[in-house]
């Protein structure tokens, strides 16, 4: 019965954490969940409380800083031309052995085919395979 109570306490802390968002209640929820597992072995209530306090403190001091560091890390937006690899483009000017032009990401790019022996006609859709300086290396979609 004690395991069920600790599990309900853990669920309550986790739900309250959704409103707070500072990871404090989540560490208490992890401590209560750990205690729920220990309570399955019919240990005395004093031992359960000690396990709850010890595990909550361990989660607080060792897990919370790592989670905060990961959460506070700013997301990096890749603005380099390499970010365009894999995007679809429309051929504006035939791409032959001498190159051609494609339109993607709202701009015109010089392009060459991945297979230089193939000619890709205007109006076709291609996928950007690589960016080689100012030239998009493309391949024709099937």
Question: Keywords for this structure?
Answer:
142 residues, 44% helix
Task: Write a compact overview of the structure shown.
The protein has three helices and five strands; from the N terminus they run αααβββββ.
Task: Give me the secondary-structure topology.
Elements (H helix, E strand, L loop, with lengths): L1 H19 L3 H16 L5 H28 L15 E9 L2 E6 L2 E7 L11 E8 L2 E6 L2
Parallel strand pairs: 3-5
Antiparallel strand pairs: 1-2, 1-4, 2-3, 4-5
Shape type: rod-shaped
The number of distinct helices, counting runs of at least 4 residues, comes to: 3
- Rg result: 29 Å
* Low-confidence region ranges: none
Number of β-strand runs: 5
Structural class: alpha+beta
Approximate helicity band? 40-55%
The major sheet is characterized as: 5 strands, mixed, barrel
Distance from first to last alpha carbon: 62 Å
Task: Tell me, rounded to a whole number, the average pLDDT.
Answer: 91
SSE pattern: HHHEEEEE
Tell me the strand order in the biggest sheet. 1-2-3-5-4
Proportion of residues in extended strands? 25-35%
């Amino acid at each position: 019965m004690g395991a069920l109570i600790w599990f309900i306490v853990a669920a309550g802390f986790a739900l309250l954490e959704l409103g707070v968002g500072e990871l404090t209640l989540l560490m208490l929820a992890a401590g209560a969940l750990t205690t729920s597992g220990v309570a399955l072995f019919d240990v005395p209530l004093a031992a359960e409380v000690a396990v709850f306090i010890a595990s909550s403190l361990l989660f607080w001091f060792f897990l919370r800083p790592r989670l905060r560091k990961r959460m506070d890390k700013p997301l990096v937006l890749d603005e380099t031309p390499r970010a365009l690899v894999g995007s679809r483009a429309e051929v504006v000017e035939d791409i032959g052995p001498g190159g051609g032009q494609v339109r993607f990401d709202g701009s015109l790019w010089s392009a060459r085919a991945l297979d230089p022996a193939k000619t890709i006609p205007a109006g076709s859709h291609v996928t950007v395979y690589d960016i080689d300086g100012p030239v998009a290396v493309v391949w024709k979609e099937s």
